[in-house]
């Protein structure tokens, strides 16, 4: 069981890393992009802006946590 | 244009990882003997090749829109990690990657590790080289498989990684020291920008969005991510200077 957990932890760290909120934000942003596209509206602009916001929040949290 | 990006991304990402793997193999070879280190290196390389050969063709069976959505999401999460760390390093909030310091630490640890001979190999030297190459190489395999399958050209992505491998091995054999003069931090920053760019592009496509001009908009996304990243570095540097002055 501990090997399975270690395997899972490795892949979690590999893809998600130390800021799970950023990864969750990416999933949410892709979902919103899909919803906009499904509504028949141009959706290409949303993801770049969302990524910029996710990165800004992640950097803010990191630099302010570091003091 | 996309083929050029594909090759350049695979080459740069692989070069960075291979430089890091070289440091570990050198430390293992110098302290624990070259035979065990080189067998560890070979075993890890074969394992990585098996992963790419097994997973690459399997991924091409998945419908392209689904593949782009999944790969785009993975690359975006993965690329943002690279980019975030690179911005924090460039902004002065994280120490720069230093191959010489890592090499010195690996050498010190390997010198004091107990001798454990298994299958005629120094087990510490073998596992150090094997794990180092496998872990650094997994990122290369991930990039080759995801980039290659999404663009329908695993061969070109593998060629980019292979070129980087050959170059690093040749320079490593000639220099016989960690490649500390390689601009690793700049390369990591560039790779972070490229991974995030491809992640945004493919994830949006996979989610059903249509880019204006299709592939022609990729340089625009790249420029956006680059400007955003340089802007973030500038803000962090100013923030750090203000904090130091206060």
Word description of this protein:
The complex is a heterodimer of chains A (about 70) and B (about 250). With about 70 residues, chain A is mostly helical. Helix content of chain A is about 80%, strand content about 0%. Chain A has one domain. Chain A has helices at about 1-15, 20-40, 45-65. The longest helix of chain A is centred in the last third of the chain and has 20 residues, at about 45-65. The mean pLDDT of chain A is about 90. Chain B is an all-alpha fold and about 250 residues long. Chain B has a domain at about 1-80 and about 95-185. In chain B, strands 1-2 form a two-stranded antiparallel sheet. In chain B, a hairpin with a 2-residue loop joins β1 (about 115-120) and β2. In chain B, α1 packs antiparallel against α2, α1 (about 1-30) packs across α7 (about 185-205) and α3 (about 65-90) runs antiparallel to α7 (about 185-205). Chain B starts with a helix and ends with a helix.
């Amino acid at each position: 069981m501990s090997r399975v957990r270690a395997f899972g932890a490795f892949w979690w760290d590999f893809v998600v890393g130390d800021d799970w909120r950023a990864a969750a934000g990416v999933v949410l942003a892709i979902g919103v992009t899909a919803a906009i596209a499904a509504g028949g509206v141009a959706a290409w602009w949303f993801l770049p802006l969302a990524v910029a916001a996710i990165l800004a929040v992640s950097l803010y949290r990191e630099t302010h946590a570091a003091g | 244009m996309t083929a050029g990006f594909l090759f350049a991304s695979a080459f740069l990402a692989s070069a960075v990882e291979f430089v890091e793997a070289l440091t570990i193999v050198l430390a293992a070879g110098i302290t624990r003997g070259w035979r065990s280190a080189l067998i560890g290196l070979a075993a890890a390389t074969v394992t990585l090749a098996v992963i790419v050969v097994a997973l690459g063709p399997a991924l091409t069976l998945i419908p392209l829109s689904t593949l782009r959505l999944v790969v785009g999401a993975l690359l975006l999460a993965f690329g943002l990690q690279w980019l975030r760390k690179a911005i924090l390093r460039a902004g002065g909030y994280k120490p720069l990657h230093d191959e010489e310091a890592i090499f010195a630490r690996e050498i010190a640890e390997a010198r004091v590790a107990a001798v454990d001979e298994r299958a005629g190999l120094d087990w510490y030297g073998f596992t150090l080289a094997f794990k180092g190459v496998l872990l650094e190489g997994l990122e290369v395999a991930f990039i080759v498989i995801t980039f290659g399958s999404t663009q329908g050209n695993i061969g070109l992505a593998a060629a980019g990684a292979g070129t980087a491998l050959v170059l690093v091995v040749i320079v490593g054999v000639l220099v016989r020291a960690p490649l500390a003069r390689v601009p690793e931090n700049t390369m990591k920053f560039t790779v972070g920008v490229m991974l995030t760019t491809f992640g945004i592009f493919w994830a949006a496509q996979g989610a059903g969005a249509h880019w204006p001009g299709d592939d022609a908009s990729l340089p625009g996304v790249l420029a956006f991510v680059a400007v955003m990243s340089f802007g973030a570095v500038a803000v962090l540097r100013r923030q750090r200077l203000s904090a130091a002055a206060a």
